[in-house]
Write a structure and sequence with these properties.
553 residues; alpha/beta; seven-stranded parallel beta sheet; five-stranded antiparallel beta sheet; 27% helix
Length: 553
């Protein structure tokens, strides 16, 4: 394994993020250094050479803050510390120093919409009572009904049920996610000032950028009386399509952009300016607002992740995504998997219209997914994604071709979605199963003992040890693709080949670099040119189904 040890170039290229490949580390499932079954920061540090050898430009670290794990770490009890089970601030510093030594940038998850109910502020609010300054940091309201026994509105939690929880003195607090995640009141200047402090805290510790969780939810219409949504069953995002842009009571309000313009003034005090990317589940034209250069600078493109394995659909999504990013002066973003969705090696093989949750509830049996075919399609999708202009975000384990672990027994599930929906939505644990590093061991090299979520025996064949140096393995495909991409990349546009037959995507980048992806069920003639890399075997001058090729000259 060759490890790239280039110096940290962040001070020389402030636009490093525009076409970077960013590797998402879900720390509790990446590597366990102390053997307690839970991944930790020292585990991350010890495996950074894997990322350097892979050829990525940066790692994005999902939450590592103090948390009771009511929502996998996104219930944060202190935004400026490390969960003791994951390490210390000194461990974070050591991890950042090693990452920079290896030429890797560091992006951390920021969770500004809510805190944990264990946060000192929320505990103070519970003690202080109605009308207090402590309660004004959150969204507390009296209930409706004769005795205030009904929630203040019909707003629904993303995780199921009412978005309001009653406290012993009778008031209700807002939680758009789990009840253990009370929403902050961003109309309160104390909240804004505290997050400016948080941005500086991590930036001063060498963090190169931030991924902003639920970036579209911070600003809320809290004027009295609070207004209901049209449908009580809606968690809110569905109403974005029917309400005038910027007027939803708690999603994608126009006022949210004042917050990010304020943050940009903090980012720009550093050299280079700190980068940021928004997780904003909003339509493309609205998403562009978050990516403006005077705000966060980049936003995740979820239309691409949600697109089916269909050439016409993907071409339209890619075209629209590039136009949206260009309208904001940003670069496009591409992602196939993350900690919230079914891994794409499985998801892309589900028949169109299949309900992901129903498939998970069946243990992955209805319909059954062929892992060989799923891996072939995942490899083709990856090579297509990496040929696109912009930033690519890679989720840990996809470089190994990991499928979704759909058959986790219900007694091991950790995701709050399972209980909060009355056990009708299985949740996201299947994509968070800890990584396999070795062929053997109680957790396949993840740690000295068993992992916090059980790994299937099939993970042994996907382990880093099983693929390292093996020609044709998925790991070596990623390594080769990222090395080539670094050499070939230039510009932020592409040109479609309009003479491509149905089911085939073909485009040119620059200086003769071209990509062809066959999404059909039939082999097609291989386009002319030098084959630089292919996601699968090329036989008889043909590009087979579910295969992508890069061509030069």
């Amino acid at each position: 394994m060759t490890v790239r040890t280039t110096p940290d170039l962040s001070g020389k290229d402030p636009d490093w993020w525009r076409q970077a490949v960013v590797y998402q580390v879900y720390p509790r499932s990446f590597a366990d250094a102390d053997g307690d079954g839970l991944g930790d920061l020292r585990g991350v540090t010890g495996r950074l050479t894997h990322l350097a050898a892979l050829g990525v430009d940066a790692l994005w670290l999902s939450p590592f803050y103090p948390s009771e794990l009511a929502d996998g770490g996104y219930d944060v009890a202190d935004h400026r510390d490390v969960d003791p089970r994951l390490g210390t601030l000194d461990d974070f510093a050591a991890m950042g120093a090693e990452a920079h030594r290896l030429g890797l940038k560091v992006i951390v998850d920021l969770v500004p919409n809510h805190t944990s109910h264990q946060h000192a502020w929320f505990q103070e609010a519970l003690r202080a009572g109605p009308g207090s300054a402590a309660r004004d940091r959150y969204v507390f309201r009296d209930g409706r009904g004769t005795h205030g026994e009904l929630p203040p509105t019909n707003w629904q939690s993303v995780f199921g049920g009412s978005a309001w929880r009653r406290v012993p003195d009778g008031q209700w607090y807002l939680h758009l996610f789990a009840p253990q995640q009370p929403d902050l009141n961003w109309d309160n200047e104390e909240i804004r000032a505290d997050f400016r402090t948080t941005l500086r805290f991590w930036s001063d510790r060498g963090v190169d950028g931030f991924r902003v969780d639920v970036a579209h939810a911070l600003a809320k219409d809290l004027g009295e009386p609070l207004r209901d949504l049209a449908a009580a069953e809606s968690a809110g995002e569905a109403a974005l399509a029917t309400l005038p842009p910027g007027t939803h009571p708690f999603y994608d309000r126009d006022e949210v952009h004042e917050i990010y313009r304020d943050w940009r003034t903090v980012f720009d005090t550093y050299r280079p300016p700190r980068a940021a990317v928004a997780e904003a589940w909003v339509p493309g034209a609205r998403r562009a607002l978050y990516a403006r250069p005077d705000e966060l600078g980049q936003a995740f493109n979820f239309e691409y992740l949600q697109a089916g394995w269909d050439a016409a659909e993907l071409r339209q999504v890619i075209t629209d995504s590039l136009a949206t990013a260009a309208s904001a002066g940003a670069s496009a973003t591409w992602v196939l998997s993350n900690h919230d969705v079914v891994r794409h090696a499985s998801r892309l093989m589900l028949p169109p219209g299949t309900d992901d949750n129903a498939w998970l509830l069946s243990g992955g049996h209805a319909p059954a997914v062929d892992p060989v075919a799923g891996l072939r399609r995942a490899r083709a999708a990856t090579l297509l994604m990496l040929a696109l202009p912009g930033s690519a975000y890679v989720y840990q384990g996809e470089e190994l071709g990991l499928p979704e672990v759909a058959d986790l027994p219900v007694e091991v599930l950790q995701d709050p979605i399972w209980e909060q929906t009355g056990r009708v939505r299985k949740g996201r644990d299947g994509c968070r199963v800890p990584l396999p590093w070795t062929r053997t061991g109680p957790s396949y090299g993840f740690g000295a003992g068993a992992a916090w979520l059980p790994q299937p025996e099939s993970f042994a064949a996907y382990a880093v040890e099983a693929q390292d140096g093996v020609e044709g393995s998925t790991l070596e495909l990623y390594r080769t693709a990222l090395k080539l991409r670094r050499k070939l990349l230039g510009g932020e546009t592409l040109t479609w080949a309009d003479d491509a037959p149905p089911g085939l995507l073909r485009f040119a980048r620059h200086e003769g670099w071209r990509c062809a992806a066959n999404l059909s069920d039939e082999a097609v003639p291989l386009p002319a040119g030098e084959v630089l890399l292919a996601s699968g075997p090329l036989e008889g001058g043909l590009l087979g189904p579910d295969t992508t090729v890069w061509l030069g000259g």
